[in-house]
Amino acid sequence: MHHTSVEFLKRRDKVLRRIIHRVGPCTIKPRRRYFVSLCDAIVSQQLSTKAAYTINQRFRKLFHRRTPTPAGVLTLSKEQLRGAGLSGQKSNYMHDLATNFSDGTIPIRKIRSLPDEEIIEILTQVKGIGVWTVHMFLIFVLTRPDVWPVDDLGVRKAVQRQFDFQDLPKTVEMNEIAEPWRPHRSIAAWYLWRSHDNIPLND
């Protein structure tokens, strides 16, 4: 699926070529469960991977077949959500996300056909969802090919290490490094994450 992107990056950058040879094929696959993926993202904010997994398992037990739905979230009280381990703030975020799905603010049927910037504009209206979260959604759920999560700490650390920056690279440096990788920067970011085994939104 990603063969063309990978071959392009191997030709354009010797550092990425080395990483690609070590990591192997790119395994990003599209997902259809948009609401579930965004719930996972909210649960995981500012938590370790282990803590996020534990809370997410408790959260999913609140739903039929362990699958969160907008209607299901809206039937839950904030006390029930907090009982699953969500903070009061994240409980508010979940209700706001469910409301935006239920009332059509998030155009679920056509979101896959919208351009990246429009999706960012729509989803960042939801409380608790920022640009970083939408970038992860674009890469790991919609498999958009040319998203460059310039503010992601994992990507920045990988660029620092792989391209021999003394300090964490600034935004302008990140963009300069990635410019030759267009229009396949999502795949480049994935390999940079994998270069130090830090892959967000991994199932």
Tags for this model:
single chain; mainly alpha; Endonuclease Iii, domain 2; Endonuclease III, domain 1; 2 domains; 57% helix
Oligomeric nature of the chains? single chain
Beta-strand share of residues: under 5%
Helix content: 55-70%
CATH architecture of the largest domain: Orthogonal Bundle
Q: How many discrete domains?
A: 2
- What is the CA–CA distance across the termini? 19 Å
Description:
With about 200 residues, the protein is an all-alpha fold. The protein folds into 2 domains: about 5-30 and about 145-195, Endonuclease Iii, domain 2, CATH 1.10.1670.40; about 35-130, Endonuclease III, domain 1, CATH 1.10.340.30. The protein has helices at about 5-10, 15-25, 35-45, 50-60, 70-75, 80-85, 90-100, 115-125, 130-140, 155-160, 170-180, 185-195. The radius of gyration is 18 Å and the shape is elongated. About 35% of the residues are buried.
Briefly, what is this?
The chain is an all-alpha fold and 203 residues long.
In terms of topology, how is this protein built?
Blueprint: H1 3-12, H2 14-23, H3 34-44, H4 49-60, H5 70-74, H6 78-83, H7 88-102, H8 116-123, H9 131-140, H10 153-162, H11 171-178, H12 185-194
